[in-house]
Every structure is written in structure tokens, then in C-alpha cells.
Design a protein that fits this description.
By secondary structure, the chain is an alpha/beta fold. Helix content is 38%, strand content 26%. The two termini are 23 Å apart.
Length: 291
């Protein structure tokens, strides 16, 4: 059976220990800060970026990797692993050009290396929702699953993997043009904590609260609507320079839900541009989904 390799990009925000242990290959996004062109987690790291971002006079912009970046990583994967099949997994095509760039690279490699098969998947999601799909695909690959089986695992996860997050402000999403259908929340009072999620690849509002603690309680309630009290979930807590907020959220979640696996991930700078520091939230899916 041919070995299957897994490729993604930095916006999956997967912790480094998982990238290494699961043999996940990834491509960095680009961040344009004034005249600087930075590469996510390569020439700019989380701590330095989140320390600088609140002082920015002008918001940086981001750009997805290009077809050449993906072609390079696909070729590297083949050379280093001997894989003949690759599953390339990307954030929502409605918020980034990464999926389209990977599709172009898929066509390019079919011309240069016709024996290599590449499947490109649009997760219609972001952050650790995207990351969870990559992780489960990589686990399946290491277990010797076929390309078709791995693709099926990811496609089953797409409609049931959900993100909910909150922040003190939506100005970063708004300024970066990624606000989706939550535009009306931008003008809310400063003491209102908006909750946003993603539906069909687009950011949507799912509620608001007058305090972070209440916002976190609402997150738990929304998970319970899906899986019930003490329902089994796999959960990824995500934050942008706010680990203390994850601790508060986690305490509420674990009191009411059965977390069969937990990951804590800090958003990469390429995502932090749009969320801003202080963001906290979660990405989850029913824990029995893959059984």
C-alpha cells in the first residue's frame, strides 16, 4: 500500500509537538507589515507578534501561500518520505486563497510527477477546526489507512467540527475584511462580548454576553445543544496571547462535558492579525465521530 503524506499550512495552528510526532508537513502564510514580508512562524513568532500588534498604527495584511509554495512542499514530501499520495488540507476557501493555490499546485505536480496523486480538501473552517481535521488525517495515515479512507474521514468531519470564540473587540476582523455576516456586531458597546462561529465557511454571529465569563458559559451551552450534557467531544482551546482565558473556559467545559481529548493551541500570527490579542475560544467535534 502506498504511503500517504499529509500537508497543510500554518493557519491550522497545530501545536509543534503534533506537527512533529504526526509527520505533518506545512507551509507558512505571509504577513505584510509595512514594507516587511514575514513568514508565519518562520520569520515572526507568536510572542513577538502579539507584543507588537496592539501598538500597530496600521494593521498588517496577510496572504496565503502561492501555488509555487505548495508545489515545493509536495515535491519535498515525495523526496523525503517516498509518498506517492498526498492529502492537502486547507482553511475555508471563502476566507483565503490557500485552497485555490493548492489546487493549482495539484495540477502542476500532475505534469511534473504524474505518478503522484494529490487530494486537496477545503475544510470550510479555520483555526483548530482545520487543525483537528489535519491531525485525524495524519493519525489515519500513520495507521496505514488508504487515501480514500483518509479523505472520507476529513469529509465526515467538515460539517460537524465547530468553532466558537470571543474577544474584547471585533475591530481586527473588521479591519482585515474577514468579518463575514457578523458586521452588525462591530458597533456594539465595549462591554459586550460577541460570540462568533463559522457556517459554510463564513464567519457568523452566534450570540453576545456582558462579560467574558458569561460568554464562556454560552459556549458550553452551545456545545451541549449539539452533544448533550456530559456528551463526548474532542476539543481544542485556542487563544491569542491569552492562556489565562483558556483556563477559565476549560474549567467550565470540563464540568459539563466529557472531553475525550484536549488540545491547547495558540493562534499563529497570520490568524492573530484578524482576531487580535486576547481572543479565546474553542474548536470541537463529537468524540464518537470517527468510530
Amino acid at each position: 500500500m502506498s504511503k500517504v503524506a499529509i500537508v497543510t499550512d500554518s493557519c491550522a495552528s497545530i501545536p509543534e509537538n503534533f506537527l512533529e510526532s504526526l509527520n505533518i508537513y506545512w507551509v507558512p502564510y505571509y504577513i505584510h507589515r509595512g514594507k516587511e514580508v514575514l513568514r508565519d512562524l518562520v520569520t515572526i513568532q507568536r510572542d513577538a507578534f502579539y507584543s507588537w500588534l496592539p501598538t500597530a498604527q496600521e494593521l498588517p495584511t496577510t496572504a496565503s501561500p502561492g501555488p509555487g509554495d505548495y508545489l515545493t512542499i509536495y515535491s519535498q514530501v515525495v523526496e523525503e518520505t517516498g509518498a506517492e499520495q498526498i492529502v492537502s488540507i486547507h482553511m475555508t476557501s471563502k476566507g483565503s486563497g490557500a485552497y485555490q493555490a493548492a489546487k493549482v499546485a495539484q495540477s502542476m505536480i500532475s505534469e511534473t510527477l504524474p505518478d503522484i496523486q494529490v487530494e486537496v480538501i477545503d475544510t470550510l473552517n479555520v483555526s483548530m477546526c482545520h487543525g483537528w481535521m489535519v491531525i485525524e488525517a495524519a493519525r489515519a495515515a500513520l495507521a496505514g489507512k488508504s487515501l480514500a479512507d483518509i479523505v472520507e474521514i476529513v469529509r465526515r468531519m467538515v460539517p460537524v467540527t465547530r468553532m466558537i470564540q470571543t474577544a474584547d473587540t471585533l475591530k481586527y476582523l473588521y479591519m482585515g475584511g474577514r468579518i463575514g455576516r457578523a458586521k452588525h456586531l462591530v458597533g456594539t458597546l465595549l462591554n459586550i462580548k460577541p460570540l462568533i462561529s463559522m457556517e459554510d465557511g463564513v464567519i457568523v454571529p452566534v450570540g453576545q454576553a456582558r462579560s467574558r465569563q458569561r460568554a464562556y458559559q454560552l459556549m458550553v451551552e452551545k456545545i451541549e445543544e449539539v452533544v448533550g450534557y456530559m456528551g463526548k467531544i474532542k476539543i481544542g482551546y485556542v487563544h491569542a496571547a491569552a492562556p489565562q482565558e483558556v483556563d477559565k473556559l476549560r474549567a467550565l467545559v470540563e464540568n459539563r462535558l466529557d472531553c475525550v481529548e484536549t488540545i491547547i493551541a495558540e493562534l499563529t500570527p497570520a490568524l492573530g492579525v484578524h482576531t487580535g490579542p486576547g481572543t479565546a475560544g474553542l474548536c470541537f467535534y463529537p468524540g464518537m465521530t470517527l468510530d
